[in-house]
Amino acid sequence: MNWENMNWETIIWIISYAIVLVGLCSYGIHRYTLIYLYWKHSKQEPKPAKKWDELPVVTVQLPVFNEQYVMERLLGAVSKINYPQDKLQIQILDDSTDETVEICQKEAAKLRAQGFDVEYLHRTDRTGFKAGALEAGTKSAKGDFLFILDADFVPGPEIIMDMIHFFTDEKIGMVQTRWGHLNREYSLLTRVQAMFLDGHLLLEQTSRNRSGRFFTFNGTGGMWRKQCIEDAGGWEYDTLTEDMDLSYRAQLKGWNFIFLKDVVCPAELPVDMDGFKSQQHRWTKGSIQTCKKMLGTIWKAPVPLYIKLEATAHLTANFAYLLLIFLCVYSYPAWPEGITPELGRYLSLPIFLFASLSIIIFYIVAQHQLHPRTWWREALNLPLLLALGIGMSINNQKAVLEAIFNHKSGFVRTPKYGIGEKKEKKDITKSRYKALKSVATVLEIVFAAWFAYATWFAISEGTWMSVPFLSIFTFGFLYVAYGSAANRFNWGKNKDVIIDTGSEDAVQVTEK
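^ thats the sequence. predicted structure below, dont judge the formating
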């Protein structure tokens, strides 16, 4: 490569591409590190220091907002939890504005008739949203330990007994279980979502926790020591991920957390593309808000360097979506002047080895650990997993930018429909619960068209090595855009298929 014969445009392109390449490869190396830590500590199963001589009082907190399709299922599962009734309080923290209020009151009365201690708290002022509801409930909670469940979760009977004995160690502030998936086999979209979550919940959480690094409460399916919450400053709602925020504050205070990868609390996955988008937007934006809020504090804290580095990688991970968008922009059908095809291949090799390949290995390892005999069936979905991750980049990049520039957007709940393990389709086209539409769909269509052209150009030029890479980008943007458009215009839908993604009745409130 002769720098003297290059124009400024090519030099700027190379420098910019190098920045993107280094950034994406850094996150890929971090992913390899998590895999290594998982294998290194895989046999270090956490064990309680001892068992309670007398079981303590536990409060089950159920923060809900307009959840009429799942409340009976949730409360039915909670009523079957194997824990002494005189040691169990159930709090229904209801911010609903629809029929959910009547359903909750009716189900609460049934539970009281069965001898359960049930407190129903209804707020008309939704200050703080979920964090505000939890804050209000904690003030009147009778238990020293708080088991938090979102409305779409279905805990098993032994869930509390699997966690409670870890709290005999007074330094334990929170115990998190692994999420399962009630409707994993519902559709291709839910299967791929399950793979995404399996990687995070199995490999990431296990490796962080067992290697002594910070990890975070997932917002549900976990139990807190009330004293830990209070010591950390309580629930705060200046981010959309109050769970991540509180987790870092608590661990910086010296509290220890436990992750139980073999204790599963199943939940319902979003079944439509717009619902998935709104969930990912909220999680992505909230993580960047927490990054802005906590990263400086973490680096000033008297904790080991490896903890600071892992927290930095965790909190900044979603900046990779910005890098991915830049990579899309730089992925011209032909290399700039002065970049030979051979040099172009060398430039692309690190992206494959440290970014793409790390993702493939990461999710294969996760599926192999969860499904030792049938992991290869899940691995067949890896191309779609890569494509979906790419296709979601515009939606999530928008969330990152909103967080960076303090843009106030709507707080959108993820619609839940009561879909379970039986794979049945439901007609909920008239549901009041809709995911908000996103203008990102237009850009997704533009990017799909651009990469379709780039794929055609690569074929015509005979650069076959780039065709699979470009094809995945094309399909990813097309799949995500089509998913939103099909929901929006009811393409190919009938009464036996879920299509509930309009915006007229969408639940939207303003962030505080």
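DSSP finds 17 helices and nine strands in the chain.
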